[in-house]
Amino acid sequence: MMDLNLVRVFIAIYETRSVSVAADRLFITQPSASYALARLRSATDNELFKRSRKGMLPTPVASHLYKVFKQSLSGIEKAVADTRSFSPETSFHKFSLALSDLGEQLLLPRLVKHLRELAPNVQLEVMPIEMMRIDEWLLTGKVDATLCSRNESISPIAQRDRIMDERYVCLVNNQHPRIGGELTLHDYLAEQHIIVSTISGHHMVEAQIKEYGFERRIALEVPHFTALGEIIASSELLVTIPLSAAKIYAARGNGRIVELPFQLPNLEVYLYGHTEIGDITAKTWFYNTLKEACPVLMEN
Questions:
Q1: Which residue intervals of 47-95 are DSSP H helices?
Q2: CA-closest candidate to residue 255, choices 166, 176, 167
Q3: Please, what is the end-to-end C-alpha distance for the chain in angstroms?
Q4: Can you tell me the distance from the alpha carbon of 193 to that of 237, in angstroms, rounded to the nearest whole number?
Q5: SS3 235
Q6: C-beta separation of 10 from 69 below 8 A
Q7: Phi, psi angle pair for 31, to nearest 5°
Q8: How far apart are CA 201 and CA 74, in angstroms?
Q9: Beta 94-99 vs 168-172: how paired, if at all?
Q10: Is the whole-model pTM more than 0.85?
Q11: Residue 121 carries which DSSP code?
Q12: What is the per-residue burial (b if ≥16 Cβ within 10 Å, else e) of 239-256?
């Protein structure tokens, strides 16, 4: 009979393509994960994984075993989880959520209020998002969920739900000397711009503008959205940002909204999570709560 702990190690290595990351995900040491892999290789009489620059690549036998092991283990863990219950009213569970600073501005105050009403004793840890590390964080359980722009680097095995779409607009100084109520393409390209670093997930604007063949004059690149309002209010720079963010700055008197003179694809906001990793009952509650609440909270 196959040891379930070995099956868990196998699945973790298969999904993360790394023995060390798999060990972190399972909260075991790397030598323990390596020992488990050696036992699996002996039991199956197959190498299972080959080291490469892209990580631990599975053999055909490993790919076949993964489908069987994943389905079987998920069934077992779900059956066990169904015997337990998560009581948000009394739980002291700690949840972690990765958000951009824009997500914090738009969502966090309302989300905290909502969670306090449902689960007054739970702890919420908010981590600044790093788009290229989100998949690793979800797989290792460093974060329980993330709300961000569409991210193709996140493993397809992750749970995902499209929360909302956002359109882009331009934010300008209230007394901008050259821009009135409408913005022409010529004026847009003639002005100097602020861009937000791609680490925050808002890379689509730059990619689309380059695809159109436009050349913008970039005066400032910032890592976050936090100071944009004050910069716009004290300069003649332009910034292209999601409408919900622009509304916040405009309401504070830090600029006015002008429609873009060209079309940009909407920003697709997704919720990602791995509810089958860790405490299934708690993670499922947290994910489903975010899935139901976020669209309403972000639109209000």
A1: 60-82
A2: 176
A3: 54
A4: 5
A5: coil
A6: yes
A7: -60, -35
A8: 31
A9: unpaired
A10: no
A11: T
A12: bbbbbbbbebbbeeebbb
CB 185 within 8 A of CB 261: yes
What's the rounded Cα separation, in Å, for the pair 271 and 297? 14
As given in the structure block, the two tokens for residue 168 are 């882009």
Contact 49, 62 (CB under 8 A): yes
- List helix spans (H) across 144-259: 185-190, 204-212, 228-233, 243-251
When computed from its CA atoms, the radius of gyration of the chain, rounded to whole angstroms, is: 23
Phi, psi (degrees; rounded to nearest 5) at 258: -130, 135
Structure tokens at 143: 């974060």
For 59, the token pair is 């053999």
Residue pointed to by tokens 């689509």: 204
- pLDDT digits (tens), the chain, 300 positions: 667 788 888 888 998 889 988 888 888 888 888 988 998 898 889 999 999 888 899 999 999 888 888 878 777 766 665 556 788 999 899 999 999 888 888 889 999 999 999 999 999 999 988 888 888 888 778 899 999 888 877 877 788 999 989 899 999 999 999 999 899 999 999 999 999 876 655 667 888 888 888 888 999 998 888 889 999 999 999 999 999 889 999 999 999 999 999 988 898 899 999 877 767 888 889 999 999 999 888 776
**Are 255 and 174 within 8 A, CB to CB?**
yes
Token digits of residue 289: 């709560």
Q: What tokens were used for 8? A: 């868990």
